Amino acid sequence: MTGLAQDVRYALRQLRKSPSFTAITVLTLALGIGANSAIFSVVNGVLLNPLPFHDASRIVSMFEATPNFLKGSISYPNFLDWQRDNRSFAAMAAYRWTDGSITGVGQPENVRAQRVSANFFPILGVNPILGRNFTSEEDRRGASPTALISEGLWKRKFGSDRNVIGQRLIVAGQPRTIIGVIPASFRLHVFNFKTADVYEAIGEETDPAFSLRDSYSGDAIGLLKPGVTLARARDDMKRVNAGLAAAYPDVDGNIQANIISLKDNIVGDMRPTLLVLLGAVGFVLLIACVNVANLLLARSTARQREFSVRAALGAGQIRILRQLLTESVLLSALGGGLGLILAKWGTAATLLAVPETVPRAEEIGLHLPVLLFTIFVSILTGIMFGLLPAIRMSRTDISGRLQDSGRAISGPRTRMQSALVMGEMAMALVLLAGAGLMCRTLVQLWKVDPGFDPSNVSLFAVTPPPSLRNQSSDAIHATLRQISATLHSVPGVEAVSLHYGAVPMEYDNERDFLLEGQEPPTRRTDNIPQTLEYRVEPEYLKTMRIPLLRGRFLSDGDDENAARVVVIDASFAQQYFAGQDPIGKHIRIFEIDSASNQRVLVPLVIVGVVGHVNQWGLAEDASRPLQAQMYRPIMQDGAFETKRLAQGFEVFVRSKTTLAPEAFFESIRQKLLASNRDMIVYDTESEEAVVTDSIASQRFSLILLGAFAELALLLAGTGIYGVLSYLVGRRTREIGVRMALGARRLDILRMVLQDGARMTLTGTAIGIVAALGLTRLMASMLFGVKPTDPITFGLVAVVLCGIALLAGYVPARRAAKVDPMVALRYE
């Protein structure tokens, strides 16, 4: 310990003697370590942190799987059979969305709402901060309506009143008794679940479709029994589903349970992107280490007499090696400390760029694992960049060093420094290639036609007064017409369409249908055509500016008293009417008859064909088979669907005003509320923002890869500048001799630049080979460009060579200005 303390004190004295060297080294390391810590904080929060639930490793997500769709929703009757007949789960819980408008406490408000099984929160180990969870008696049809509320709603609506338990809250027109308050820390990023403000028991659901075995009613989680593996649970559920297939062959003949660990279900899509970013930022740290190693090699030249004397006085190679490693680790520790400060800023900046689709973003931060990672990286970095120079210095011949008074350094050391620069040039090119590919990806994405014009279009949601739910279909339709007329009277409105069903680039709504002459399926899993369904008003085409290709669009005459019609898109026409004119042909759709609570077939006549709309986003639609789409008039909805309209719908509005979307929405909201104060108008968003958000993942990757590439380019440029400056300094006498013998300044400039060009071109060639292999790892992140795109590789090679040439020009120009007489006296 005494020897180590002496090494540290001596290292500190040496670093104080060279403040410029120390500052440059610490800053270089801080950039590399700070960038790594910032990205590791994201990887740790999203991928590595255990889920914040009790026994999280035993919790799984559950889906109904068919040969064509592995993550389907589960019918509630099937879920109840899974729950009853399995042998592998300690518990199962179902969940689904429901209407969340609340009244009776302050201003009417629409909130997120979920229906969950009674054991949903116990499975996750979530306990209310007040009150209790649902009981099994409350989780059934006919039970007294109860509700759990979020901590946020409790504070916002009830002023954190601890006597809230037992109070009444009207949810979707239904009075409910509050039985508990769920903590604000609860988050669950799974399919079809978002943290809600109101939770209701799923068993009391009264929607007629919910009780049908062939209805996709919700999703589920399960808690494995201790010691039960995923493979064993999957085998067990195969047994359960075999029993259901035998009992209900027409419905469950080909249904299986798809079981995925909860963590894999949450973070699966983000894992490749984050691992690519972590690898990229690792390259930045390696480049920083190479730069510092070069600085240490250059500095070792000035210290060779010092270590010659120490060796002559009896210091062995191990002792000298330990001293040099102590200095390098001390430098990396200082760089790590400053890196933590940079990581704090970098993490905050990264969080600003993180898209909403990234799960567990709230867990990203400089937590203890990130601090431990930074300490580990700092120590490892100090050893990495210090070991090679230290070994070479400790092995140098003593007598040679005592005789050498600072003459030109040996060839091997120069070659080593050149090799290090080539390595960092190669790594910089790999990062530049990755950033270039992502840049080209974004350019290609912006060229994609979404199928509609999002400019000046806003989308918002409307929840009609609760009293409307108990009225007839005619009364509901009359109210919808009144709302539409009110919207048309708002100054600046160009076109309006009430909307229900799929929303472009946000969520889907699929409908089974049959072609003319096609027999109904005998089993739910039979190959039956599906189409995305948009239920709209006649002005939808004008609002979204979707091109009409054939026939006509919906009209005001397509109301509840007219023959039922449908408009299909070009993809629908191509898939099912190729080589035919679809106008006038019929399809049949499945609807629920409100009288019999059974599915019935309803015929529709095709009256028009419109262009295809990107439903899944700019990138995803272009990478998957185009799904058929159809448009139906809202006013022709059956009684069952009309009742759902009374619960809420969306509105698309195209404005002809230059007002900001928020200001324009406020004028609309005030106009609607003036017509009926019990109406709730909420959740406005610009369609331009929706289109932009559909490529948020690619934009996030580009921002980070671009930042890493810029940092790598800066470090690589600094590295080649430093090495050439060092070589020029060591060759000052040689340059003087050359100029004394008649060499022109242009010859000297060319000589130095040739050294830089040799390192640059070799490093670039190595980098291209490496990038051709490594960029394949990011193939899933690209769109419209191959991982080996020659244009991208050519451009980044030119940029890198240009930066290197610029970095080498300064020392080359300085060398060309050397005075021969001064140079000859240099040593």
Q: Helices and strands in order, then pairings?
A:
Layout: H1 2-17, H2 19-48, E1 59-66, E2 69-72, H3 76-85, E3 89-97, E4 101-103, E5 109-110, E6 113-116, H4 120-124, E7 130-131, E8 146-150, H5 151-158, E9 168-171, E10 174-182, E11 198-201, E12 219-224, H6 230-247, H7 249-252, E13 256-261, H8 262-267, H9 271-302, H10 304-312, H11 317-353, H12 368-395, H13 398-403, H14 411-446, E14 457-463, H15 473-488, E15 493-501, E16 510-515, E17 530-536, H16 540-544, E18 548-551, E19 565-569, H17 570-576, E20 586-593, E21 598-610, H18 618-622, E22 629-633, H19 639-645, E23 649-655, H20 661-675, E24 680-686, H21 687-693, H22 696-730, H23 732-740, H24 745-774, H25 790-816, H26 820-824
Parallel strand pairs: 6-11, 8-10, 17-22, 19-21
Antiparallel strand pairs: 1-2, 1-12, 1-13, 3-6, 3-12, 4-5, 4-9, 7-10, 8-11, 9-10, 14-23, 14-24, 15-17, 15-23, 16-17, 16-20, 18-21, 19-22, 20-21
Helix pairs in contact: 1-11, 2-9, 2-11, 2-12, 3-6, 9-12, 9-14, 9-22, 11-12, 14-22, 14-24, 14-25, 22-25, 24-25
Brief digest:
The chain is α+β, with helices and mostly antiparallel strands and 827 residues long. Helix 2 (19-48) crosses helix 11 (317-353) and helix 14 packs across helix 24 (745-774).
